[in-house]
Write a structure and sequence with these properties.
This protein is α+β, with helices and mostly antiparallel strands and 323 residues long. It folds into two domains: 192 residues, Endonuclease III, domain 1; 106 residues, Nucleoside Triphosphate Pyrophosphohydrolase (Alpha-Beta Complex). It is built from 13 helices and eight strands. 38% of the residues lie in helices and 16% in strands. A hairpin with a 2-residue loop joins strand 1 and strand 2. Helix 7 packs across helix 10.
């Protein structure tokens, strides 16, 4: 792979390291994932360490990557690997698929790269490349299309280098057969076999169905500081951002007077003026439109469940943008 990017997870065939990198790269840009990957492996270098990791520490290592369910599933899977596979990563594609958070693509990537099993790893990059190579105008978000692509790729995978084959296809999509803007057809090594290029359809393909509109939620978030730090509490163990720490909040956008009353009802006294500003955070299926009430405060007794947050507490980006 002389033209491949020099990425830290490509310097090893260790299945655990490959697994961590593939999970991190879901919904995360490569350049952003690198420092997280290196820090994560530095603290949790193997399956046993991950299985025994403190939840707060795991969330802190993940802080800023978002989609925290990925981190929770990593630990759940690590515990299963310890219990069901004696602490060693399962070597077969079908076994990998039984673990939490590991779908067809991730299982294919681990099995082919770490264990040289001749299975495809079909992600969005690969679907886009295949749609253009074959000039296929069907919706690449259709699960049936993905199933067809997997079946078509299976006999093409070289038995001696399945991981290289899969990585090369992903690299082609990431660097040349681009999703936004014009693909770099002049540099493409498979241009001579590309039907979309021959037919002048590279701008039209692939076809993607429209995503469902995100739901909008409005709320007022309170960024309240005392001498020891920010005030916050832990979110419920299920649902969005499950089990993570959060800033206090109220449903809807409160007026200045309503926000002041909300604080007073909880025995919280502002030290100086209340500061108000707007923030927004976008999740996959929902948008938070937030009015932030920030203040230095004094308080006699913390409401039940509230604590003073410090650097050991992972605060999701959705709340960090309010600071």
């Amino acid at each position: 792979m002389q033209n491949a990017r020099d990425l830290p997870w490509r310097r090893t065939n260790d299945a655990y390291a490959v697994w961590i990198s593939e999970i991190m790269l879901q919904q995360t840009r490569v350049t952003a994932a690198i420092p997280y990957y290196e820090r994560f492996l530095g603290e949790l270098p193997n399956v046993a360490a991950l299985a025994n990791a403190d939840d707060d520490r795991l969330h802190k290592l993940w802080e800023g990557l978002g989609y925290y369910s990925r981190a929770r599933n990593l630990k759940r899977a690590a515990i299963e690997i310890v219990e069901r596979f004696s602490g060693s990563m399962p070597r077969r594609y079908e076994e990998l698929l039984t673990l939490p958070g590991i779908g067809e693509y991730t299982a294919g990537a681990i099995a082919s790269i770490a264990f040289h099993e001749a299975v495809p790893a079909v992600d969005g990059n690969v679907l886009r490349v295949w749609a253009r190579l074959t000039a296929d105008g069907r919706d690449i978000r259709d699960p049936a299309y993905k199933k067809e692509v997997r079946a078509a790729l299976l006999p093409l995978i070289p038995a001696g280098a399945p991981g290289v084959f899969n990585a090369a296809l992903m690299e082609l999509g990431a660097l040349l057969c681009l999703p936004n803007g014009a693909p770099k057809c002049g540099l493409c090594p498979v241009r001579a076999w590309c039907e979309a290029y021959r037919q002048g359809k590279t701008a039209e393909l692939p076809v993607l169905s429209a995503k469902k509109a995100r739901r909008v939620e409005t709320k007022t978030v309170f960024a309240l500081s005392i001498a020891q730090g920010l005030l916050g509490f832990r979110r419920p163990v299920s649902g969005l951002l499950a089990g993570l720490w959060q800033l206090p909040e109220a449903a809807g956008k409160l007026t200045d007077a309503e926000a002041a009353a909300w604080l007073g009802e909880r025995g919280i006294l502002p030290v100086g003026e209340l500061r108000f500003y707007e923030r927004k955070h976008i999740f996959t299926h929902v948008e938070w439109h937030m009015r932030v009430c920030a203040a230095d405060v004094s308080i006699g007794q913390l409401p039940e469940g509230w604590i003073v947050l410090d650097e050991s507490h992972a605060l999701p980006t959705a709340y960090r943008v309010c600071l």
